[in-house]
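Reopening: TPR repeat-containing protein still failing for me.
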Amino acid sequence: MMASIRHFAIRTLAVGLLSTTASYITGVLSQEVGDSVMRGMETKLSEKNVHRASPQVASVAKIRKELSTCTKDAGRLGEVVERLKRALDTQIAVLGPQDLEVSATLLVLDWCVQEAGHVDEAQEYFTRVLELGTGTLGPDDVQVAKLRHALAECLNAAGGREEEALAFKFGGIATEVEELFDLAGGGPSTDVLLFLGREQAMAGLMMEAQGSFRRALVKENKELKPDDLKVSATLFELAQCIWKSGDRFEEAGETLKRALSIQVAQLGPDDLQVADTLVFLGQCAMMEDGRLAEAEEAFRRALDIRMAKLGPGDIEVSNALVILSSCVREMGRLGEARQTLERAIGIQTNTLGPHDVWVASMLHKAGVLERGMGQGEEAAALFRRALDITMNGPGMDNLGVADTLVELGQCVLKAGQAAEAAELFERALGIRTVWVGPDDPLVDEVLLLRGLCILELGAPV
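Support: Ran it again with your exact input. Result attached.
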């Protein structure tokens, strides 16, 4: 009888503390997520019956009940934080560092220090909560996945931690989504797996994304006909992930060929989706030795389709011309590359206007081609046109501008205008130093070129 009463008292105390906590962590988690996490911990608590009632623990509940009143006055947040820290020390001493009540107080403490603007400190507390939750609920529990999401938001708030935040967020999203949608015990649906793959790819988790897309393909091959366009779309997305993983361009190309065969069979050889896949296939071929001719063929087929479907003046036609120009340039046909790029610039100028930054980018590419053919004067003119656009636009201090300054500087230096070249290199040096740091090879390149100007002039510039 006494044991039953004790169990009831402990459980009542625990439920009260946990539910109270859930009301005050909305600065880190949504109310729904906070309640869900606390319910998961409460269930584990009742299963293990690990809590011990004590006046010290009960006092923490009182502090939490006062929290909503205290936080209305921002000036008292510091007082709340100090009281919670003392309460936390007591809990650790009485209950142990791994107790769920410790994690509940850490969540409230985390919210308070975030409200006070101490994001780094909040991050430390939340990491401890995640460790406790993982140890209690298990690494694959859906509530732990939600905690990972919340920690990602905390990392984002700290600034400059985007990659780490994304890794936390999407490292946990698979666990959460799969558990939520695995109601029948047959695993997540194809749509869920595709969703996961896309989210993981956006987060830069390419290996994880490939796994999700491959699992989706297995399901699609069972549920759909092998030439269904949905299979083709999944193959395309899988190929993108393989491509972005690096050094597996042949595998990406073979995956695209499977997608392309389905598209041609279902849509016909002249569909715009076929053109998109051909462009991607050509890019894969360009990355492999000895396959430039295959890449050129794919690009020309894509160009023909786009011109027929969209008209010769469409922006997508110009994009196809740009990539074809890059291909024939790699094959050593610089004159043809220049003419192809001029066609693209003409379309972009008519479509986007003569002062668009994309036009400036194409003018830069054309200048590089001219300089490669030894046409320094023509190249310099193209670089100046590009700078006229970019220096008057919103991105006047980006790395693209610095690249154009360097190219133009080399043209005028070769033409014997060392003083102007030195000025151009100095401007490029300032931009690159800001963007990539003083020790980057791009900065070393400009320093070397500026040094050549100094030697040419015979005195420091």
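The longest helix spans residues 2-22. If you still see a failure, please send the error message rather than a screenshot.
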